[in-house]
Design a protein that fits this description.
two-stranded antiparallel ribbon; alpha+beta; 7 strands; five-stranded mixed barrel; binds succinic acid; Hypothetical upf0131 protein ytfp; 33% strand
């Protein structure tokens, strides 16, 4: 299976004493299973969230991958998420968690106060082996309803993300349309804090 862990270590050599910002836009918004020094809502510009990435290791299996979010370039669009200031050793854990096709990129981030910082963001680009690509929101909802993996159901991932975005006051039509379509299929409500 594709594994981006080594590539991520090579791409961004980090100074062990210098904390860095991480921007999360998917499960990293609602599941902070790592230590952080600070956390604050933020957004990045020029990207939009899409359920176009396959999950072979968390919300699906190698045979039946689930669908999780990645970012697609979209000039003029703001993507809301959560920024965490972390010490570089935390990337050991994060690179493993995000190993299924995600690479670290550097991005400017804007906080709600208007302040800006540079951060790292995990993006699964279209050329990665786990990329599933575009599909209708109805199709994605059915795919998600049928997918499960070691970290739990794919439905939980979607419902927890939608809830976290509402808590941030962020409107994401793609996520909310898929959530509505999923709920029409009669999926159960998410179990809180499932990994
Ligand atoms: C992220 O949350 O920033 C990356 C995608 C994911 O882990 O769901």
């Amino acid at each position: 299976m594709l594994n981006t862990t080594e590539e991520n270590r090579r791409r961004h050599p980090l100074h062990p004493d210098h904390p860095v910002w991480l921007f999360g836009y998917g499960s990293l918004i609602y599941k902070a299973d790592f230590p952080y020094l600070e956390r604050a809502p933020a957004s990045i510009s020029g990207w939009t969230r899409r359920f176009w990435q396959g999950s072979h290791d968390h919300r699906g299996t190698p045979k039946n991958p689930g669908r999780v979010v990645t970012l697609i370039e979209s000039p003029g669009t703001l993507c809301a998420g959560m920024a965490y200031r972390i010490t570089p050793d935390v990337f050991e854990h994060l690179d493993h968690r995000e190993k299924n096709g995600y690479l670290r990129f550097s991005t400017p981030m804007t906080f709600h106060t208007g302040e800006q910082e540079n951060g790292l963001v995990y993006i699964a680009t279209a050329d990665n082996g786990a990329f599933l690509g575009e599909a209708s929101e109805q199709h994605i909802a059915h795919h998600i309803a049928a997918s499960h993996g070691p970290s739990g159901s794919n439905a939980d991932y979607l419902l927890q993300l939608a809830e976290a975005l509402r808590e941030l006051g962020a409107h994401d039509a793609h996520v909310f349309h898929i959530e509505a379509a999923l709920l029409r299929t009669g999926q159960p409500h998410p179990t809180k804090n499932s990994p």
